[in-house]
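Let us begin with a simple case.
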Amino acid sequence: MGFSKIEKLKSPELVASIQHYFGVKNINSLQNNSECSKTKGEKHDFKGYIVTNKFWYWLFIIGTGLGDEAFYALFIPFWFWNIDGAVGRRVVLVWGIVMYIGQGIKDIVQWPRPGAPVFRLHNKWALEYGMPSTHAMVGVSIPFSVILYTMNRYLYNLPFSILFAVCWCTIICLSRLYLGMHTVLDIIVGLLLTILLMIPLVPLVDHLDHYLMTNTTSPFLLLVSSIVIIVYYPNSGKWTPTRGDTTMVLSVCVGILTGSWLNYQTGELTPSDLKPPYPIMWPSSIMFGCLILRSILGFTCIGLLKALSENIFYSCMCALLRQDEANLKQSEHSLENKHKTIVELATKYLTCSFIGFCITYSLPQLFKYLRIERPNFFTEI
C-alpha cells in the first residue's frame, strides 16, 4: 500500500464523507429553508450538525456500545452463569491480552482522533488516542474467539455464526467512523492487528487456561504479572483514561480466573462424563425460569457489591496514602497528580478483580445453595 493511500485512509475528509453518507449533515451546507424545515425536530448539535437518519444513528449508538464497559458488564457474567464457563475463561483471556496490547499501542503511537471536518457525535473517548481502534479489536476478538472455542465443542450452524460475527464486527467498526472517533486507517490496523494476534493467541490460551486452573501458584502469578504490566504501562505523555480502562480489563480477568481456579482446587469443578461435540440443549420452562432468577439476582448483587467495594477501597487507599478523600476526588487528572492516579487505579483493580471473583466463584456458590444453579457449570473444564 503506497504512502498516498495510507494518507487517504488516515484523512478526516474520508470519515466526514462516511458520516455524510449515513445522514450526518453540516447545518451550514443545507441549501435553503425548506430543506431545514424537513429536518426540523431531528437531532441537532451545537457544533453544527444534524442527524437526518435516526435508524443509522441508533444502530451505531448500539453498535459502539458492544465495545464498551456496559457491554462487558452484561456479557461476561451472563455467559458464565448461563452458557459455558470453559469457553468464557478462554474468551476473557483473549480479550484481556488483545485489549492490553491495543491500548498500550495507542499510548505509544499517540495518533490523535480525527479532527475537522469530522463531527464528534460522542466525546466519551475523546481524551484517548485513536490508533489502533480497540473497538475494532474487540469486534474481532470476542465474537470470533467465541466461535473458535465452540466450533469443536458444540453442534451448531457454523456458517450462520460466522456471518453473525462478521455483521457484529462490521457494525462496531462503522459505528466508530459514524461517531467521528476513528479514521479508516485506525479501524483497518485494529482489525489486522487482532487477526495477527489471534493466530498464535487462540491455541496458546487453550493451553494457558489449563495451566492456570491446575497450577497451585496461579493466583500469585496472575496477581504479580497483572500488577507489573499495569505499573509499567506505556507513558503517553499526558493523562488519558486508557490506563484505567486497561486496569479494569486486566483485573476482571484476574478475578474471573482466580475464582475458576478456586472452584477447581476445592473439587467443585470436575470433568464431564460426556465427550464433545455436545448438542445444544435449549432450556425448558423451569431451566429458563432459573436463568432469569440467576441473572436478576446476580446482576443485582454485582451492582451492590460494585458500589460498596468502590467506596470502601477508595477510602482505604486514601487513608493508606494519607490523602483527603474529598479533595482528591475533586482534583484534576494529570500525570503530576500521582496520588489520584494511584488511588483510582488501585480502587479499579481491587473492585473489578473482586467482581470477577464473585462472577465465577461466590455467586455460583449462592446459586447452588438456592438450587437455581446451571448443573453443567461445575463440569466445564
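The second case is a distinct protein. As before, the sequence precedes its C-alpha cells.
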Amino acid sequence: MFLEFISRQYRNQFAAVVAANLIAAGYGITVGWTAPIIPLLQSLDSPLPSGPISTAEASWIGSVMGFGGVTGTLLIAPIHTYFGKKVALLSLAVPHLILWTLLYLGDNVFYIYAARVLAGITGGGMFALVPLFVADIADRRIRGTLGSLTVLHINFGLLAVYTAGNYLSYHTIPQIMICLPVAFAAFVCLLPDTPYCLLRKGRLDDAEKSLMFYRNVAPEDLASGTPQGLAFVEEFENWKVFVRAEDDKEKLTLADFATPAAIRGMAIGIFLMAMNIYTGLFAIVTYAGNILIASGTSIDPKHAMSALAIVIILGNLTSFAIIDKAGRKIFLIISNASMGTFHAILGIHAYLFEADPDIGFAWLPVVCLAGTIFSATLGVTNIPYFVLPEILPAKIRSIGCTICFVLMSSMAFVLTKTFPMVLEQFKLYGAVGVFTTVCATSIVIIIFWMPETKGKNLIVEEKDGKGVLAGKGKM
C-alpha cells in the first residue's frame, strides 16, 4: 500500500494530507499532555507557584478542551465555506501557537485552562475540516487510508508527549512545540485550495490546475490522451456538473434535514461520534497516568505510557495498511468487540485488586490498556471521521459534519469532566464497566443499522432523499 502512495498517481494526495495533518499531530500532543502532566501538577513537585492542584482542578484541565472543541467546530464552518479550505487550515495554526505561549508563560492554573480551551478550538476545527479536505482531494480507492492518517498523526503526537513529558521539564515542551504550528502553516501555504472550493468560487482554471496537482496529471497527459489524462478529464467534468447542481439547488433549509436519507445519516453520524468518545479511548489517553496508578500495575507508569503510545502507532499502521481492503462495518465490529473484551478483563482485575492488593498479575492492566488501544485504532478511533462525509447527503454534508463534531466535543467534555470523579467514587472497574457496555451496544447498532460506505462516490446529487451518482469519475 505504501508503494501505491509514493507512486506518481497518489504522491501529491499523500503529501497534501500529511501536511494538513501536522496540526493533528499537534492536537495529539495537547490531548496526551495531560497524562504525564496532571499527576505532576497534583504532586508536591508541582511547577505551579500555588502548589499542587486539586482533583476538581485536574478534571477542568482535562475537560475544558470540550468547550474549545465546540467553539472551533462552529468557527471553522463559515471560514472554509466563504474563504476555502486552505485558508481554514491556516487559521488552525493561530490558536495552537497561542496555547503553547500561554503554557510557557503561565504561572497559575487559569493559564492552563485558557490553553486547553485553545487546544480544543484547534481540535474541533481540525476534526470538522480535515475529513472534508480529504474528501475533496482523495481518490475514492484510497480515501479510507488517507482518512486514517489523521488519527495516525494524532497518535504520533501522543507518543511524542508521553515520552517527552516523562523526561523534559514542564516549560521545555512548550518551547519546542511553538515550532510546530509555524511548520504546519508553511507547508499548507504550498498547497492549492481544493478543486471543489475553487469551482464554488468560479475559478475554473485554478480548479483544473488544483485537480491536476492532486491527481499528479501533467499537461502532456491531457494533450496526448493517456489513460490517466482521459480519467482526469472525466473526473473534472463530473466535478463541474456536481458543483453546478449544488449551485442550482435551493438554499439549505430545515426541510433538507427531514428527508429519510438526512435523518438516517445524521443519526448514524451522532452514533459514530458517541461511540468514538464513550468506548473509552479518549479518557484513557487523557488520564493514562491516573488510570495506571489506580490499576495497581507493577510497571512504572512513565515507561508504561511510552509503551502504550507505541502500541497506538502500531495499531494505526496496521489500520493504515488494511483499512481499504475490507468494509468499514467489519473493522468497527472487530474494534468494538476486542475493546470490550479488554475493558472487561481490566475491570475484573481492578475489582479483584480492590479486594486483595496481593492478587498478582500486576502486569495485566498494562496489557489490557495496550489491547484496548490497539483494538480502538483498528476502527473506533479513525473510521468515524471519514465515514461521516460518506453517510451524509451532499446537501447537508458540511453543516451535518459541523453538528456531529459539536456534539462530539460536548460528549468529550462530559466524559473528561466526570471521569476523575467516577474513578474516585466508583473505582476503575466501575468506569471500564460503562465502556464495556457501550462497546457491546455499538456492535448491535453497527450490524443492524449502519450501511456500508466503502468505495462510495462522493460526487452525488440528492434526489427524493436518495443519493444518485453524478458521474463515474473516481474520487
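The longest strand covers residues 460-463. Residues 1-5, 460-475 have pLDDT under 50 and may be disordered.
Keep these points in mind for the review questions at the end of the chapter.
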